[in-house]
Write a structure and sequence with these properties.
Layout lengths: L38 H4 L2 E6 L1 H18 L7 E7 L3 H8 L6 E9 L12 E4 L9 E9 L3 H11 L5 E9 L12 E5 L5 E2 L15 E4 L6
Parallel strand pairs: 2-3, 2-5, 5-6, 6-7
Antiparallel strand pairs: 1-9, 3-4, 8-9
Bound molecules: 1-O-pyrophosphono-5-O-phosphono-alpha-D-ribofuranose.
């Protein structure tokens, strides 16, 4: 079966569409002390929304879907990580894929050190790879307003890739300002500021292995 790609060009995708996001069940660090958080950051954490084992299990499933969807392509799938938050997701995804893949990175500026989106997107680092005729999978940690991805998808499409799809570990649909074709989604999160597993607040907390929310008033 062929599905119509979100971006128009050649994507013959066999099988069912990508699976639905996994459910999120928050717990406090005290409720599950087995979920390790670095000691010096533990008091800043309000709730653990997604433990690292749940992230790993979801990435297993998403990687299997990507393997299935891109099997037998002419060129290796190019994973494009959007720096810096997506590094953890891209790294863990790439290590699960069985199809041949390559990696590259882009860096954009949209948030600064604020917790809200400015809506302004600038490319700070472009790809080192030519993508004409290539299958590109943009890898994100979170889609919030969608402004970053909206800009990046349009920018990459102008380079005539065979296809552009998006995999994001998290999505916050309640915050969306532009509709986006996000093919592979890990989890839907509520409208709270989340950090960990690559996501930061003023560059802190990226190394926490889970997706967590911060206590109100926590600052760096
Ligand atoms: C975050 C995230 C996405 C973007 C999503 O990046 O990694 O790239 O914001 O927001 P949007 O959907 O509202 O555009 P951020 O600018 O915080 O940079 P970082 O990845 O370096 O933390």
């Amino acid at each position: 079966m062929s599905t119509t790609p979100s971006d128009g060009p050649t994507v013959a995708t066999p099988g069912a569409p990508a699976s639905s996001p996994a459910p999120v069940t928050p717990v406090t660090p005290a409720e599950d002390p087995s979920l390790w958080i670095p000691e010096q950051l533990r008091d800043d954490v309000d709730r653990i929304l997604i433990p690292e084992a749940a992230i790993a299990a979801r990435l297993d499933a998403l990687a299997a879907e990507v393997d299935r969807d891109y099997a037998g392509r002419e060129s290796d799938l190019l994973l494009v990580g959007v720096l810096r938050g997506a590094v953890f997701t891209l790294s863990d995804l790439a290590r699960r894929l069985t199809i041949p893949s390559a990696i590259d990175f882009m860096a954009c500026s949209s948030y600064g050190s604020s917790t809200t989106s400015s809506g302004v997107v600038r490319i700070l680092k472009d790809l080192d790879t030519e993508i004409e005729g290539r299958d590109v999978l943009l890898v994100e940690d979170i889609v919030d307003t969608g402004l970053t991805l909206d800009y990046l998808i349009k920018n990459l499409r102008s380079r005539h890739p065979a296809s552009v799809e998006v995999l994001s570990l998290l999505t916050k649909p309640s915050r969306r300002e532009v509709e986006l074709p996000v093919r592979y989604v890990g989890f839907e999160v509520p409208d709270v500021f989340v950090v960990g597993y690559g996501l930061d607040f003023a560059e802190r907390y990226r190394g926490i292995p889970h997706i967590v929310s911060l206590r109100p008033g926590t600052g760096v």
